[in-house]
Amino acid sequence: MNRPLIILILSLISFWTVAQNDQTLARIGFGSCSNQDSTAQLWPEILDQKPQLWIWLGDIIYGDTHDMTVLRTKYDHQKRNSDYQQLIKMCAVLGTWDDHDYGQNDGGKIFSKKNESKKELLRFLDVKPDDPIQNHSGVYSSHTYGTGRQKIKIILLDTRAFRDTIFRSKNPGRRYDPNPDGDILGEEQWAWFEQEITNSDAAIHIIGSSIQFISNDHGYEKWGNFPKSRQRMLDVLVKHKTNRPIIISGDRHMAEISKMAVPGLPSPIYDFTSSGLTHTWNSKDATEENQYRISKLVIEKNFGMLLIDWSNNEPTITLEIRGKSKTPFDTPMVVH
After folding, report:
1. ∠ at Cα 324 (35, 96), nearest 5°?
2. ∠ at Cα 188 (187, 194), nearest 5°?
3. Which one of 32, 156, 160, 179 is most buried, by most CB atoms within 10 A?
């Protein structure tokens, strides 16, 4: 057997070892926007939910720096939190970044320290040296849990390292206007994403995006600022008849669930936004338009839970917006 073929086989074995986990997932927690200096984080409440997996959707810390020593110090401070230490002992932890842990508020591909920042994120997440994420630009990754009809594919996108420039708006009440020709993911990540979706036999596809995908009425960061990318994502999902796509997102310092029926998809797309592990909007009475919202708009510290019931032939997924209380903020939403 020649040397290149041996290397290829070893690489494929390494990829499968890292990406595939036979554990059947029934309880997945996720969240974003966690100030490392806060003394009132939601880790005790998250631990009470006994997640089998925790997913960071960005703003793991508020780094906002080109100085990697500062970034590492903040990550280390976050990681030393005793309750967070309990979480990483309880369950696996995955994650992607958003702007503040990336290093630049609302930053995109021109951030000069993105490669160095990537190293700090992967260090915080304890990503192994042979993980496929180490071998490409950005921090996108894919993870498969379960087998047979209980298989879940988790695809975590990188909406920062490849994203084109966003346009400042001159309109009152709006921070940004759409960039009609701009892109979010970059061709390398698009090709990878479509490969992950092609012929996937997972019963559920959880797509992690640090910014909101469906909500399109507000004037802040969102996929709608890049309409070609937003439509391209829809086209890819339709092309491959993606089974049960659930997008989980953060960034906005509030929580809501959005739903979009897309012709050609076997089921609607849901976008479950959970943001504000340590802080949210100043006013709990604030409102915001979102024509796709099907839940309450929650402006209190929150995290998300995905509960999967595998007892029937087809899985049932319950979406819960949770916080300090023992009960969810809204009636749990059941998705088939």
Report:
1. 40
2. 85
3. 32
Is this model's pTM higher than 0.90 or not? Answer: yes
In 35-185, which ranges are continuous DSSP H helix? 43-48, 68-80, 82-90, 99-102, 114-124
Amino acid, single-letter form, for residue 111: F
DSSP tag of 49: T
Strands 141-145 and 20-21 turn out to be: parallel
> Are the C-beta atoms of 306 and 270 separated by less than 8 Å?
no
User: If residue 194 lies in a helix (H) or strand (E), which one and from where to where?
Assistant: helix 186-197
Q: Please answer whether residues 63 and 103 qualify as being in contact, where contact means their C-beta atoms are separated by less than 8 angstroms.
A: yes
Q: Would you say residue 181 lies in a domain?
A: yes
What pLDDT sits at residue 8?
41
Single-letter code of the amino acid located at 3: R
Coil, helix or strand at residue 284: coil
Evaluate whether residue 19 is within a structural domain.
no
For residue 74, the enclosing domain spans 24-335
CA-nearest of 145, 105, 141, 106 to 121 is 141
CA distance 180 to 224: 10
Q: Give the CATH number of the domain where residue 57 resides.
A: 3.60.21.70
Q: Which of 215, 96, 72, 217 is nearest to 163 (CA)?
A: 96
Run of H or E including 205: strand 204-209
Q: For the chain, what percentages of helix, strand and coil (3-state, to nearest 5) are there? A: 30, 20, 50
Which residue's entry shows tokens 């819960």? 320
Q: Is residue 135 part of a domain?
A: yes
The contacts of residue 253 (CB under 8 Å, 6+ apart) are 33, 275, 276, 279, 280, 281, 299
Question: Is position 275 within any domain?
Answer: yes
Q: What is the pLDDT of residues 67-113, one digit of tens each?
A: 999 999 999 999 999 999 999 999 999 999 999 999 999 999 999 99
Q: Helices (H), strands (E): how many in the chain?
A: 8, 15
d(CA 257, CA 195): 27
